[in-house]
Design brief:
Order of helices and strands: EHEEEEHEHEHEEH
Number of helices: 5
Structural class: alpha+beta
Strand order of the largest sheet: 6-9-7-8
Strand content: 15-25%
C-alpha cells in the first residue's frame, strides 16, 4: 500500500456488524448517514422494547499515511485486542515509552477520530513507578499533553520502572469497531512503510 492512500470510511464500514454484545450476544449492522462533505455519522440501532441509537461522528475520508499506519500497528501489537466481556467497547494501550503512546494519541487526533479532551478522568493510569507520585504524574502529563488531573497514580508495591507503566483506556464502542476495520484493511494490503516518520 502506498502512503497517503485515501479511503472512504463510510464505504469501508457500511453494513459490517458490531462485535457481539457480552450480555446478549447480539450483533447490529453499522449504518452510515452523510452529515456534510467532510463528515459522516456511523450508527447502529439496538432493538428491544425501547429502541436505542448508538451514533458517533467520523471523518468521511481517511488518509492512510505511514505514521497513522504505524499507530494502527502499535494498537494491534501493544494494545488490548480482546473481545470478551466488555473489552470490545474500548482500547487499552499500555507502555513505558511515552513517545509511542503520544504518537498514537497524536494520530487519532490528527485523523479526527478522537480528541485528548475526551479522555475520561479514569482513562490514564500509571502503575509500578519508582518515582514519587507528583513527579510521575507531571512526567506523563507533560509527555502525553494531558492535564495532570487526568493522570491517576497507583502506589503499588511492585516498582518496575522510573516513571511506571502507563495504561490508557479509551471507552468508545464505535471507535474501537471502526479502527479495527481500518486496521484489518491495512493488514490486507502490502507495501506500506509502517515506521513513524
Amino acid at each position: 500500500m502506498e502512503a497517503n492512500l485515501t479511503i472512504d470510511l463510510g464505504k469501508l464500514v457500511d453494513g459490517i456488524k458490531t462485535y457481539p454484545s457480552w450480555t446478549t450476544g447480539r450483533q447490529y449492522p453499522l449504518c452510515i448517514q452523510a452529515i456534510d462533505n467532510e463528515h459522516i455519522e456511523i450508527f447502529y440501532q439496538i432493538a428491544g422494547p425501547v429502541k436505542r441509537k448508538i451514533s458517533r461522528q467520523f471523518p468521511r475520508e481517511l488518509k492512510l499515511r505511514s505514521r497513522f499506519i504505524w499507530a494502527l500497528g502499535f494498537l494491534k501489537g501493544e494494545g488490548s485486542n480482546a473481545l470478551g466481556k466488555s473489552n470490545y467497547r474500548r482500547f487499552t494501550i499500555t507502555n513505558t515509552n511515552p513517545e509511542f503512546l503520544r504518537i498514537v494519541l497524536d494520530e487519532l487526533e490528527s485523523m479526527h477520530l478522537f480528541q485528548r479532551e475526551n479522555l475520561s478522568n479514569t482513562g490514564v493510569n500509571v502503575l509500578h513507578a519508582k518515582e514519587a507520585e507528583s513527579t510521575v504524574r507531571a512526567f506523563w502529563s507533560r509527555e502525553l499533553c494531558i492535564p495532570v488531573e487526568k493522570i491517576r497514580y497507583y502506589g503499588d508495591k511492585v516498582k518496575t520502572s522510573k516513571n511506571g507503566v502507563c495504561h490508557i483506556y479509551i471507552s468508545d464502542v464505535l471507535l474501537r469497531r471502526v479502527v479495527d476495520e481500518v486496521s484489518s484493511y491495512v493488514m490486507k494490503e502490502r507495501g506500506a512503510d509502517t515506521r513513524p516518520q
